[in-house]
Design goal:
Layout: E1 5-13, E2 19-26, E3 31-35, H1 42-57, H2 65-75, H3 82-103, H4 107-111, E4 119-127, H5 130-142, E5 147-152, E6 179-182, H6 184-202, E7 207-211, H7 218-228, E8 235-237, H8 245-254, E9 259-261, H9 268-276, E10 282-283, H10 292-305, E11 309-312, H11 320-332, E12 336-340, H12 348-351, E13 352-354, E14 357-359, E15 362-364, E16 373-375, H13 377-381, E17 392-395, E18 400-401
Parallel strand pairs: 4-5, 4-12, 5-7, 6-17, 7-8, 8-9, 9-10, 10-11, 11-12
Antiparallel strand pairs: 1-2, 2-3, 4-15, 13-16, 14-15, 17-18
Bound molecules: D-gluconic acid and magnesium ion (MG).
Length: about 400
């Protein structure tokens, strides 16, 4: 007899970072979890799940992953969007977790088995200036990382993107976003100096990456890409706004620096032109924000046909659950490129347990049945939700800019 879903709970917790997790339980005693974290808009997804999806899940056969995906996607009528696709992803990943546990297999086996034993990952090195960025690179190298994203503060600006000012709390509740400032010409002067210094100190072999966070025009991005060509970046990420496909077409003609984009995408349709016209080298859409394993598998397959590789988003707001799912996916996906890995806050390990691990520059999926990540609901309750926002950014004259 088919198993059925008997319980579905949304767990919102903030162990140093807000995380939203969906837990499903079945009549046969299995359970599975999926990540539903949408940084800065967490409660919208929690409500979407609790108020609209959970009631539909009770009684469904957990084995019918594809049908459930189509039911939630087509059934909503209002397709796509980060809230909808994150909610669908949470259900999808929890169902894959359950199916793999029911089979007694690590999830990558269900996807088609291992294409590799471990996944190359990159982490972040940020410094308030070039000298501090080089120190941060050295620290990460000593921890075993072989690939490092390097960002440095731009002279005259308050902060490096994504990095809070000294003394500013990372997890105090907020009623409004922090504000950063931005100066494109100053940034375009700094970036080649930064990577010249990185190559000078660490030599040609270190794998280096850089993220421009959607702040440039195609022409500015082309100047940046060209000025970085001598330093052989693994990729330049999010140089122009992700949704401006014509901008990518222009940029692609103007630089040979490899290009990555997609952390803000939530469906294959966001990436279709970029992939099929081969305007990018790496697609960053990850499981939690792009409809789960069921949908990201379609994106990865389209990418494989066009010689585009994966490079999934893995900042600290990508919960340990998505990291587990992404590493099982990465174990299988033939066109794997790299996995981002910025460590989670220390308290996250009180709430989640995970079977994946890092050693010597690589991430390992683990061999436990399912995706290998669990949540302790009692520990989660010790860390109530705190309203937090992603930063916003303004030009020096006050104009709102991309962050
Ligand atoms: C990255 C990202 C992050 C995001 C953050 C959004 O490449 O890791 O750009 O810094 O901004 O994860 O929630
Ligand atoms: Mg990024």
């Amino acid at each position: 007899m088919a198993d059925r879903i008997t319980a579905a709970r949304v767990i919102v917790t903030s162990p140093g970072q807000n995380y939203v997790t969906l837990k499903l339980e079945t009549a046969s005693g299995l359970s599975g979890i999926g990540d539903a974290t949408l940084n800065g808009r967490e409660l919208a997804v929690a409500s979407y799940l609790e108020d609209h999806i959970v009631p539909m899940l009770i009684g469904r056969d957990p084995a019918r992953i594809e049908d459930t995906w189509q039911y939630l996607y087509k059934g909503a009528y209002w397709r796509r969007g980060p809230v909808t696709m994150t909610a669908i992803a949470a259900v999808d990943v929890a169902l894959w977790d359950i199916k793999a546990k029911a089979a007694g297999m690590p999830l990558y086996q269900l996807l088609g088995g291992a294409s590799r034993e471990h996944m190359l990952c990159y982490t972040h090195a940020d410094g308030t200036d070039i000298a501090h960025a080089l120190e941060a690179v050295e620290t990460k190298r000593q921890r075993g990382f072989r690939a490092i994203r390097v960002q440095a503060g731009v002279p005259g600006l308050k902060r490096i993107y994504g990095v809070h000012a000294p003394g500013e709390s990372h997890d105090a509740p907020q009623d409004a976003p922090s504000e950063g400032d931005w100066d494109t010409p100053a940034y375009l002067r700094l970036a080649p100096q930064l990577f010249a210094a990185v190559r000078d100190r660490f030599g040609p072999e270190l794998t280096v990456l850089h993220d421009a966070h959607h702040r440039l025009s195609p022409n500015e991005a082309a100047q940046l890409g060209r000025s970085l060509e001598p330093y052989g970046l693994f990729w330049l990420e999010d140089s122009v706004p992700a949704e401006d496909q014509a901008a990518w077409r222009r940029l692609r003609q103007m630089t040979t620096t490899p290009l990555a984009v997609g952390e803000v995408f939530n469906s294959i349709w966001d990436a279709q032109t970029l992939i099929t016209e081969r305007l990018i080298d790496y697609i960053r859409s990850t499981i939690v924000h792009a409809g789960g394993i069921t949908h990201v598998r379609r994106i990865a397959d389209l990418a494989a046909l066009h010689n585009v590789r994966t490079g999934f988003h893995g900042a600290a707001d990508i919960s340990p659950v998505t990291m587990g799912a992404a590493l099982h996916f990465g174990r299988w996906v033939p066109n794997f490129g790299i996995q981002e890995y910025a460590a989670h806050p220390a308290q996250a390990s009180e709430v989640f347990t995970w079977d994946w691990s890092f050693a010597d520059g690589y991430l390992h999926s683990g061999e436990a049945p399912g995706h290998g990540v669990t949540i302790d609901e009692t520990a989660a309750a010790r860390y109530p939700y705190k309203r937090r926002y992603l930063d916003v950014n303004r030009l020096k004259d006050g104009t709102m800019w991309d962050w």
